[in-house]
TrEMBL record, chain A:
Residues 7-16 have a biased composition (Pro residues). Residues 98-334 form the Aminoacyl-transfer RNA synthetases class-II family profile domain. The keyword Protein biosynthesis applies. Residues 1-20 are annotated as: Disordered. Keywords: Aminoacyl-tRNA synthetase, ATP-binding, Ligase, Nucleotide-binding, Protein biosynthesis. PANTHER family: ASPARAGINYL-TRNA SYNTHETASE-RELATED PROTEIN (N-TRUNCATION), ASPARTYL/LYSYL-TRNA SYNTHETASE. This is Aminoacyl-transfer RNA synthetases class-II family profile domain-containing protein.
UniProtKB/TrEMBL annotation, chain B:
It comes from the Bacteria. Belongs to the glutamate synthase family. Residues 433-445 have a biased composition (Low complexity). Residues 417-445 are annotated as: Disordered. This is Alpha-hydroxy-acid oxidizing protein. InterPro entries: Aldolase_TIM, Glu_synthdom. It comes from Streptomyces zhihengii. Pfam families: Glu_synthase (PF01645). Residues 197-367 form the Glutamate synthase domain.
């Protein structure tokens, strides 16, 4: 794992008051405001309905890579703060076949991620779900969203972006809608060839992802992660067992992952089996499994990290610089 | 003063060793010169104990050691340090999981942890500790039963050896035990020195196919009812209730994926798997090694410590010897448990392919006899016997042992015609007994 701070990024934020007064944060928040405006406009234009996500529940996304959910006492029941509202997105599809959240998430990430520049304990996702959609449909929306937001922000506040050191050429490919596509297998092969010890069975690790992102001048999708590397809800490819119908969207120039998404598993028996394969006790997920047994629509969707998007737009080094109230992994902050 | 008993287990012998250490390996020296010694009448024995340990006459490996040392080798030249599931262990031993029973999770377990650490051997912490006994949370002054064992171990373990292995069962997964430990700053030193492992437990020798069971009182039962099934099996008037955990569901693919999940999510922790003595334990062990397990533990039906229904204790599961026979030459690190308390039984398990053996009931009885040094003395006695036996076989490392070192009077575990002399020290194959149907390769019976 990458334990080195992103180049040029101070390791930790200053005291909160000082951070809130800084002109750089103000610039970042103006960019964020435009990005949110553009994201909502784009998704509404594509027929999506915005819902507000739940904050606590009996279960949340089980996560991985050592990230933990926070427990809360809910009338004597152990509930979790949402690390991701993916299960609620799926359950909502009956009433809202194209839906999105601007969702707050809390993930107690392992402390070694404090220096990646790309992890916060509290962050937001633009969370999208589409009934009866394929991976390619979801990728088209994710790419369209990034293109539209970038176009809008560059047009709305060009002075702020140039003031932060960004140039029009930094966004040329994204604004033109040009994206590359690789498979996970190809990405692993590139990393191994470059001498990076990437585990072929797992997620691309932080350092590997940064390497791939730095090497690339254009945003790119990574498809087909191996089973076991992601959540039980990522659908296994029926034509290619062991491979998931999922993807990441990686920004160029070292800004790393912006989006994770997939086709979702909707078959009840397969969901239960996949839960066991990830060591989960299905009983925990009783409400969700009842929905699945009754029939959850097939879907695809994704989450785009809002702070990661704003960091890409502003070109700043670390996520804490684009968060008004940053909480770095392992660093106790107000 | 003892509070613990272990019927059916050679408890008095273990207690004698916990008191006397290496002296208990030998007859009482007071009788020396006035008494003639010979074998004791044969006691009832399981298949593993029925095997004789059979030194050869010609000993090329002793010659090799002689050349190396430039003197005649002695039993003290036998090296017992070995690699156990990715850890260095000073003896081919580890402290088995005790779980969340009252006997297994109280002070005795803490004493056992401290002594295992001093011995430089790994310690396995059983399932259900966190859901039953809790875990240190923000603001809590008191550390949990699990933390107490870990603290005791870390305070005494020498640099460069030992390790802590933590099981997670279904109910533990609800409590995210591995995640809690992996991200707890208190564990950072263990992770940084490569001395933390997580063990996926699929079952146990005392009750194959069942989950953990403990006896609880009514108040505890109410408290636990949300996380476990609690049954009233002792009669309505009884103060006792039976708390049952679920055994978990495994298939080839579930096992493979869970191991992959463990390695992906906890890359700095070693990955161990424990199987009950199931009829397809050979297939399961191979699947685990193929999926990258650093150690596979097989708990024979002679295994114990946990609360179990009598019918399971007496009638269910393969004996340890049969598990080892079915597994044959291990593809990776194999660990064996089930009634191990002295050097002879340990050696037979090692000769059948195990890298190390676990002490469960023996460890608890030993610390019950002497909380400060009982386990250390027991282990020292066992280590001395191992050195004597291994050197008698003309070998100088436990990894050099093989099935050729054993002989069964009834021929049921006959060694291969050509003992494994391939340098690995592991059995090339273990032949099928006369009259026993040959099993298809890789097939379950």
């Amino acid at each position: 794992m990458d334990q080195h701070p992103a180049p040029g990024a101070p390791a930790t934020p200053p005291p909160l008051g000082e951070h809130l007064r800084s002109p750089r944060l103000r610039a970042a928040m103006l960019v964020q405001q435009e990005a949110l405006y553009a994201a909502r406009a784009y998704l509404r234009g594509e027929g999506f309905t915005e819902l507000l996500p739940p904050l606590v529940g009996p279960v949340t996304d089980p996560g991985g890579r050592g990230a933990k959910a926070l427990d809360v006492d809910y009338y004597g029941h152990p509930y979790k703060l949402m690390t991701s509202a993916i299960l609620y997105k799926q359950a909502s599809l009956h009433g809202f076949p194209r839906l999105f959240y601007i969702a707050p998430n809390v993930r107690v990430e392992p402390e070694e991620t404090a220096g990646t520049g790309r992890h916060l304990v509290e962050f937001h996702q633009i969370d999208v779900e589409i009934a009866d959609a394929s991976r390619e449909d979801a990728q088209e929306i994710a790419a369209g969203l990034l293109t539209h937001v970038t176009e809008h922000v560059w047009t709305a506040v060009p002075g702020i972006l140039t003031g932060l050191g960004r140039a029009e050429t930094d966004f040329a490919d994204v604004r033109a809608g040009k994206y590359d596509v690789h498979t996970h297998e190809e990405a692993v092969a590139r990393l191994l060839a470059a001498g990076h010890p990437q585990n072929p069975d797992g997620e691309i690790d932080w350092a590997g992802e940064r390497l791939l992102s730095l090497e690339s001048d254009r945003a790119f999708f990574v498809n087909d992660y191996p089973k076991g590397s992601r959540g039980f809800y990522d659908r296994e490819d029926p034509d290619n067992p062991g491979v998931l119908r999922n993807f990441d969207l990686i920004a160029p120039h070292g800004f790393g992952e912006l989006v994770s998404g997939s086709e979702r598993e909707a078959d009840y028996a397969t969901i239960v089996t996949r839960m066991r394969e990830s060591g989960e006790n299905p009983a925990k997920y009783a409400w969700y499994l009842k929905e699945a047994r009754d029939g959850i629509p097939a879907s695809a969707g994704f989450g785009m990290g809002l702070q990661r998007l704003v960091r890409f737009l502003t070109g700043l080094d670390a996520l804490w610089q684009v968060s008004a109230y940053p909480k770095l992994p392992g660093v106790v902050a107000p | 003063m003892s509070s613990l008993s272990a019927p059916g287990f050679p408890e008095e012998h273990v207690r004698a060793r916990a008191r006397g250490g290496t002296a208990a390996v030998f007859p009482d020296p007071a009788g020396y010169g006035t008494r003639l010694y010979g074998p004791a009448p044969a006691a009832p024995a399981d298949a593993l104990d029925r095997a004789r340990i059979v030194p050869p006459v010609f000993m090329p490996e002793r010659l090799g050691k002689l050349i190396d040392l430039a003197r005649e080798p002695e039993f003290s030249d036998v090296g017992l340090t070995t690699s156990v599931g990715g850890f260095t262990a000073r003896l081919p031993l580890y402290l088995s999981a005790f779980g969340s029973t009252r006997a297994g999770s109280g002070d005795l377990a803490v004493h056992a942890a401290r002594q295992a650490a001093r011995l430089g051997i790994p310690m396995v912490i059983g399932e259900n500790m966190v859901p039953v006994h809790g875990y240190r949370r923000a603001g809590d002054a008191v550390r949990s039963a699990l933390s107490a064992r870990i603290d005791a171990y870390l305070a005494e373990v020498p640099d460069g050896c030992g390790g802590i292995v933590v099981q997670q069962s279904t109910e533990d997964a609800d409590s995210e035990v591995w995640n809690l430990l992996y991200s707890d700053p208190a564990f950072r030193p263990l992770l940084e020195t490569g001395r933390l492992a997580f063990e996926l437990k699929t079952g146990q020798g005392a009750k194959p196919g069942l989950g953990g069971m403990t006896v609880v009182d009514r108040a505890e039962a109410e408290q636990l009812a949300r996380r476990f099934t609690v049954r009233d099996v002792f009669g309505e008037d009884s103060a006792h209730r039976l708390r049952c955990a679920t055994p978990g569901t495994f298939t080839d693919e579930i096992l493979r994926q869970q191991l992959r999940f463990m390695r992906n999510n906890f890359p700095k922790a070693r990955t161990w798997v424990k199987f009950h003595p199931g009829r397809d334990v050979d297939r399961a062990a191979r699947a685990a090694w193929a999926a990258g397990a650093d150690a596979v533990t097989v708990d024979g039906a002679e295994g114990g410590t946990g609360w179990a229904p009598g019918v399971f204790l007496d009638q269910v599961g393969l004996p340890l010897a049969e598990c080892l026979r079915r597994i044959g030459r291990p593809d990776g690190c194999l660990l064996a448990t089930g009634g191990i308390w002295e050097g002879g039984r340990a050696l037979r398990a090692l000769a059948l392919g195990a890298r190390a053996v676990g002490l469960g009931r023996a460890a608890l009885v030993a610390v019950d006899e002497d909380p400060d040094h009982g386990l250390e003395r027991l282990a020292e006695a066992l280590a001395l016997e191992l050195r004597l036996l291994v050197s008698a076989l003309g070998k100088y490392a436990t990894t050099a042992l093989g099935p050729e070192d054993l002989w069964w009077p009834d021929g049921s575990f006959a060694a291969p015609a050509h003992p494994a002399d391939d340098g690995t020290g592991h059995p090339a194959a273990v032949t099928t007994a006369p009259g026993e149907a040959a099993r298809p390769a890789g097939g379950a019976v």
